[in-house]
Design a protein that fits this description.
By secondary structure, the protein is an alpha+beta fold. About 30% of the residues lie in helices and about 25% in strands. It has two domains: about 240 residues, Aminopeptidase, CATH 3.40.630; about 110 residues, Alpha-Beta Plaits (2-Layer Sandwich). It is elongated.
Length: about 350
């Protein structure tokens, strides 16, 4: 039954921008959840979401959180396949396996679910920021004492925290001229490249890298400049992706950019997206319960720190503890996304023991 649910979930082409496909997936989920839970549907800027709770409340004791949206891929990825004990498909790890676990849990608990103070949140925009999904619902007053959100922590490694993200757009204004007379113009491209040399110095690690990369990073993700091969470019736009550790503040990041740009008055920048860094307490009672349940299934749970970002940050920003951990799997966002079949089944058993142990009313 668990694999059958996952197969159905994978079949939905629920790309982040395809609101109709995500809504159809939520219809499928509601058909199962609605048998035993109160279900409410929402939409923000076209992005559909769903909240289901055992009792009519915005803040249950425990929330099971997942996102339905996936990144694009060829048609074959939307058919669940098994090879060598592994399940393959778009979203099989990130993160439809978790949604399958939630739906099966509600089915299996049946009417006994009334014994628990439990809720489920499913959103459809995590891959593009989560602002119209989890953040939207939290701003509407939804929350919990604890959130379970398996969108990271690969190979049974609980995320003890994650870097923050800051996406910044730059503009550079120069002066056009004929390319044969470059001295008559001012190249916006060359100005930006000289600026990047200064900016890179601001983000160089103070200590030699030990392999964990626990430091702030900067990646140039987009550059567009120039209109014709025979002209000094008078304008450039670019985007920068910054990831930063919890010890760094946004103000410190701004100061680094300003220091690098002080020699280049033609450069300006503005924020595109910002997401806070976060940390979690691995000694939290619910996390200890999860580790104990995993050990009963023969799983040795470790911990890790994430360089990426997820909807977990929205809960952490509001002081809601969050548990993020994946079973064995890999290749998410690639054509070889997979999850270990036995781990998938173990994961469900661990989740069920956790919920029945900590979410009692």
């Amino acid at each position: 039954m668990l694999q059958k649910i996952l197969k159905r979930l994978i079949s939905f082409h629920s790309l982040s921008g395809d609101h109709e496909a995500n809504a159809r997936l939520l219809d499928f989920a509601e058909d199962i959840l609605g048998q035993h839970l109160f279900v409410r549907r929402f939409s923000s800027n076209g992005h559909p979401s769903l909240v289901a709770t055992v009792r009519r409340t915005k803040k249950p004791k425990m929330l099971l959180v997942g996102h339905t949206d996936v990144v694009p891929g060829p048609e074959k990825l939307f058919r669940l396949q098994m090879r060598g004990g592994k399940l393959f498909g778009r979203g099989v790890l990130d993160m439809k396996f978790a949604i399958a676990c939630y739906l099966r849990l509600v089915q299996e608990l049946g009417s006994d679910i009334k014994k628990y103070d439990l809720g489920v949140i499913l959103t459809s925009d995590e891959e593009i920021g989560g602002f119209n999904g989890v953040e939207y619902l939290l701003k509407k007053g939804y929350g919990a004492e604890f959130a379970f959100l398996p969108d990271g922590g690969i190979n049974w490694q609980i995320e003890r925290g994650s870097k923050g993200m800051w996406h910044v757009d730059f503009e550079v204004h120069g002066k056009t001229a004929h390319a044969a007379h470059p001295w008559e113009g001012e190249s916006a491209i060359m100005t930006f490249f000289r600026f990047l040399q200064e900016l890179e110095k601001e983000f160089a690690p103070n200590l030699p890298c030990d392999g964990r990369h626990y430091h702030d990073t900067l990646t140039i993700t987009r550059i567009a400049g120039g209109e014709t091969p025979n002209q000094v470019p008078g304008y450039l736009s670019a985007s920068v992706n910054i990831r930063y550790v919890p010890e760094t503040t946004k103000k410190e990041l701004e100061q680094r950019i300003l220091r690098a740009a002080k020699k280049f008055p033609a450069i300006s920048f503005k924020e595109r997206v910002h997401g806070h860094a976060w940390v979690t307490n691995l000694a939290h009672p619910v996390i200890r319960e999860y580790i104990a349940a995993a050990q009963k299934q023969g799983v040795d749970v470790g911990d890790t720190f994430s360089h990426g970002s997820s909807d977990a940050r929205f809960f952490a920003e509001r002081g809601i503890p969050v548990l993020t951990v994946w079973p064995r799997g890999g290749g998410h966002h690639s054509d070889e996304e997979w999850i270990e079949k036995q781990d998938f089944e173990k994961y469900y058993r661990i989740l069920k023991e956790l919920i029945t142990g900590v979410a009692k009313r």
